[in-house]
Design a protein that fits this description.
This protein has one helix at about 5-55. It has about 55 residues and is mainly α.
């Protein structure tokens, strides 16, 4: 069936695959929405400040 080095290679492959899967889930569900939401909020603040500056002129 498997020799020991093939078994270790298979375990390494499964470990890397699992780490990649959970990293992808973490990025898609938390990091990317946080990044996009933060940049939208900052852009809206900039737009509001530009409007206030125009009104005060």
């Amino acid at each position: 069936m498997f020799e020991f080095d093939q078994y270790l290679g298979f375990l390494a492959f499964l470990t890397i695959l699992t780490i990649g899967f959970w990293l992808m889930i973490f990025l898609v569900t938390f990091v990317i929405p946080y990044w996009v939401g933060g940049s939208l909020i900052e852009r809206l603040k900039e737009i509001r400040e530009e409007k206030k500056a125009k009104r005060n002129e």
